[in-house]
Amino acid sequence: MIGLFFLSFVFKKDTKFYKRRGSKLLSLMVSLFTSKYVEKWKEFFPQKELRYPPSFHSRVISCASLEVLRSYLSWRQTDCHDKNQYDTCLSELSRNKKMSEGESNDILKETQKQPKYDLLFNEFEIKYKECPDVARQGSFLLRQKVEEIVKYDINGTPVKRKRIKVIQLHSKNVTSRSFWSTHPYLLEELGKFEGDICKIKPELKRSFQFENKLLPSTWIVIRIDGCHFHKFSEVHNFVKPNDTRALNLMNSCAMAVVEAFNDIVFAYGMSDEYSFILKKDSQLYGRRPSEVVSVITSFFTSLYVMKWKEFFFLTKLEFSPYFDGRAICYPSNKILLDYLTWRQIDCKINDMYNTCFSVLVKSGGCLNGTLTQDKKPGMTKTEAHKYLKGTQTREKIKLLKRFGIDYSKLPLMFRLGSSVFWDEERTTNKMKGVLEMSDKKVVVDYINIIDKTLWNEHPHILMD
Ligand SMILES: Nc1nc2c(ncn2[C@@H]2O[C@H](COP(=O)(O)OP(=O)(O)OP(=O)(O)O)[C@@H](O)[C@H]2O)c(=O)[nH]1
Ligand SMILES: [Mg+2]
Ligand SMILES: [Mg+2]
């Protein structure tokens, strides 16, 4: 269901989508939606440039029965109606009576529906009920079986087939039986009603809004990861094993995220993932996990689509990139550093494996444009995996040497991942000949984060 700036996607009761993991569902849905929104912007606003990355928040609400689901949808529909009626009054008062928002709010607050209908009609000759359905009632998108002509036979007779299509419709009242009975496909998918709904129970409404908070006084790590990036990287011809453009794009998005959210003190990324660390006492979105996860994932996705052209120039986005996200709390600096150590070790292990794998499958052993001495045709992927299975770091380094590659000379960004944080700009004052610190700015660096040096040099990052 779509209303004024909100959307609800209903999954079947027995869905097994992403094993019903709440964080996955809420983050990837909001991320895919954001990606589509940014991509489609030009279609609807051809003259307007998208000047700021839009972001959305999302949450999962479980509805135990069809009645509860109907109550939920009814609550959203009522909300849509109330907000739209209020906003219509607000904009008319401002446009025609030149009232400020504060003055209009004073008039409208605590008024019921009827006085607002009267105000619109008496003052502005607007029959509210004749305003577009889409604004007053919201829209419903649902799959429906429709019969379509697929071709014509030799006699010119149309051949029809049943297809499932997404259709958009409006309904005055989502709780009405007629809405559900005229769309039998909905009940086929969702089940049968046990009883009727008259009024939305207040305790149900409260349950739709309730959410546990992330443990207080703990570091919050939001880790996002690209969905199906294996396919995404192939379709967009990412260089193997590391594509500098793709990594720089991820880093550029992460820097913008760190700049936008004051509470993020550090971010670490590699491949298609990024971890954002929020300070211990952060009160971002009241520490509600759904909001924090969804907004950061959504904002990152927006940036990724908007910045794509900056890094991939002529490569067209063939399908929408999207990310999933999760929140994890860590109570102490030590445990947080253990987490970062785990991610950086993972980065090193994966990078070394992928580099060897790439060398083995590339015919003639050609890596990053450097021709090596080994001119043998490459292995198949299966052979390469088999060859590398169980090999230790030392053996992999030796293998790369045979192909003329000194692993320690490969770019730090590939081997150590990327760290993003606020740093003071250090400049030398030529007049005084001394080192000076200027304003802080967000930087990206490719450093060892397992080592204590970074944390000792930048004690402000993990300040309690
Ligand atoms: N060629 C190339 N591929 C990359 C690069 N960065 C990421 N990838 C691809 O993205 C994948 C990321 O791994 P995963 O996150 O485990 O896999 P995924 O396909 O995204 O699957 P899910 O995260 O489970 O949806 C890698 O396996 C690569 O296939 C890159 O720089 N170059
Ligand atoms: Mg991934
Ligand atoms: Mg990944």
| SS-derived structural category | alpha+beta
- Whole-number average pLDDT? 89
Give, in order, the helices and strands.
EEHHHHHEEHHHEHHEEHEHEEHHHEEH
The number of helical runs is 16
Strand order of the largest sheet: 8-5-7-6-11-12
Give the N-to-C terminal Cα separation.
Answer: 43 Å
Outline:
The protein has 464 residues and is of the alpha+beta class.
Overview of this structure, please?
- The chain is of the alpha+beta class.
- It has two domains: 60-210, tRNA(His) guanylyltransferase (Thg1) (Alpha-Beta Plaits); 219-415, Alpha-Beta Plaits.
- The protein contains 16 helices and twelve strands.
- It has helices at 22-44, 66-97, 101-108, 113-124, 133-137, 177-181, 184-190, 202-209, 229-235, 244-260, 289-312, 333-361, 381-388, 393-402, 412-416, 453-457; strands at residues 2-3, 6-7, 140-152, 158-169, 219-226, 264-270, 273-278, 323-330, 366-367, 370-371, 418-429, 434-445.
- It has a six-stranded antiparallel beta sheet, sandwiched between helices. It has a two-stranded antiparallel ribbon with strand order 1-2.
- Strand 6 and strand 7 form a beta hairpin.
- Helix 2 (66-97) runs parallel beside helix 4 (113-124), helix 12 (333-361) crosses helix 13 and helix 12 packs parallel to helix 14.
- The longest helix has 32 residues, at 66-97.
- The protein is globular, with a radius of gyration of 28 Å.
- The relative contact order is 0.11.
- Residues 367-371 have low confidence and may be disordered.
- The structure holds guanosine-5'-triphosphate and magnesium ion (2 copies).
- One magnesium ion binds at residues 225-226, 229, 272.
